[in-house]
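Intended use. Records like the one below are meant for learning the mapping from a protein sequence to its folded structure. Do not use them to infer anything beyond what is encoded.
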Amino acid sequence: MKKILTTFVLTVFLVIPAALVMAAQFGLFSGRRPTDIGVHNHRLKPPGKNSQNVVSSQAALHPHTDYQVIAPLKFSGDPAVAFDRLQKIIAATKGTTVVVVQPDYLYVEYQTATLKFIDDVEFALDAAKSEIHVRSASRLGRSDFGVNRNRVEKIRAAFDAN
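Structure written out for the chain above:
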């Protein structure tokens, strides 16, 4: 009985976590870069109807869940200065890869340190409304355990502090 318990404990606490980390190092949890993102008709990609792994400041424009709704970033003054400030905050964030930079659009990937999950995050400048719309989505899984919302709120706090 003691040997079975020892084997179980070793498997649960050593073998399985080690296998997960190894799988992550081979990119098995990174997913594929989406080809259907960007701004189309002044809108970011809608969240999946029942998805619990995406937040969007434009979710209310589409069928959505309460979880998916998040406020855009608000600013005053020069839109270009505000968007530049956002880009600097993003570039200084650990685990971030900037993929696309345009005067009114920013697409970045966030990668987790251990398991190498990748989330896709987009920002779209709406200069007329003094807003920056945001969409943050996990590539894999049905739930993100609040990671995307927390990320956007941390970005918002840094953006509002500057």
